[in-house]
Amino acid sequence: MTAPIQPLSQPEIFYPESDGQPMADNTKQFRYIVTIQGGLDSLFKDNPDVFVAGDLLWYPVEGNNTIRQAPDVMVVFGRPKGDRGSYQQWRENNIAPQVVFEVLSPGNRFGKMLNKFRFYERYGVEEYYVYDPDNGNLEGWLRSETELSEIPSMEGWVSPRLGIRFAVVENELQLYRPDGQKFVSYVEIDRQRELAEQRAERLAERLRSLGINPDEV
């Protein structure tokens, strides 16, 4: 009697958490990536089901670790916040990132960007934005059924998903929250904090000069 042949077990597939590429090629690109990611994270800080990440590998297909991209910034609605080594879509209720940003560097060639566009179009991105800090060029695409269609004009454009407004002033990208506040860098945030503290101290000094305890106001 011949023993039944046991099927060979499939080797576990490893999904790398790094593609070996730097997050940014220069300080300007890095500053924009961090400002966009930080601004969006802050915008949705009170919503536990919006995940915002920067330079995180996204694997859309289970069982294939060669199909992947690492968007400069991506936003996923319907997934909880939290640390991840990569975004494995089948472990995330099969929800694809809805919004993706790319900030160009001199190393971003046409062929590379075309491959990224095709990837994002194929795997379900709803809004795709590309900014070139060297010339101030801003482009965007919005999903129309199975395709990403170019947005005719990005000046004053409001993202349907994010609610933020886009503008380019003197070749500098500016993003505005729904309440009108502009996205700013960490340095600018710290400067605003220092100015607020200085104003509060001047006010306290004036109150004390009038015999009023500022702690009791």
UniProtKB/TrEMBL annotation:
Q: What molecular function does GO assign, one term?
A: endonuclease activity
Q: Which residue range or ranges hold the Putative restriction endonuclease domain?
A: 44-154
Keywords, sorted A to Z: Coiled coil, Endonuclease, Hydrolase, Nuclease
- The superkingdom of the source organism is Bacteria
The coiled-coil segments of this chain are: 186-213
Span of the signal peptide: none
A Pfam family for this UniProt protein? Uma2
This chain's protein is named Uma2 family endonuclease
- Which organism does this sequence originate in? Floridaenema aerugineum BLCC-F46
